[in-house]
Amino acid sequence: TMTLGVMATHSEVRKSMRQQDFLPSIIACLAPDEDVVVQELATLCLASMSIDYTSKIEIFEKGGLEPLISLLSSPDPDVQKNSIECISNLIQEVLARAAFTEMTGIIP
Questions:
Q1: What does the pLDDT look like over 44-60, one tens digit per residue?
Q2: What are 49-89's pLDDT values in tens digits?
Q3: Which of 25, 33, 22 has the alpha carbon at shortest distance from 70?
Q4: Reduced to 3 states, what is the DSSP secondary structure of residue 51?
């Protein structure tokens, strides 16, 4: 996940990662039983990926929003920061914004 997290900052790499269908594997790394370093790098990758419209939709459709919301209570500040960044990008889209409000009760 470290390599993917860093490489995802480049648009061509993000495009290739979408084509290779990496997102479900990255989202799986958000699980509560994963090591905090794995969560940090997975959230970093998703924050970078969520810059692109297509990735925003895919992260949301593949169930990435709920674990990201859960990670807001992580003891690691980097996991929290990366999760907030990704959520912020995701809720720019109407469906994700509605789901966020439904899950948290917060209206962005």
A1: 999 999 998 888 999 99
A2: 999 888 899 999 999 999 999 999 999 999 999 999 999 99
A3: 33
A4: coil
User: What's the CA gap between 46 and 50, in Å, rounded?
Assistant: 6
Lookup: tokens for 22 = 């990496």
Q: Which of 9, 53, 47 is CA-nearest to residue 26?
A: 47
Residue 92: Cβ within 10 Å count: 12
pTM for this model (two decimals): 0.85
Longest dimension (CA), the chain: 36
d(C-alpha 43, C-alpha 32), whole Å: 13
For residue 30, give every residue at least 6 positions away whose Cβ sits within 8 Å of its Cβ, in sequence order, or none.
39, 42, 43, 46, 64, 67, 68, 70, 71
Identity of residue 42: A
Token pair listed for 99: 């789901």
Coil, helix or strand at residue 104 = helix
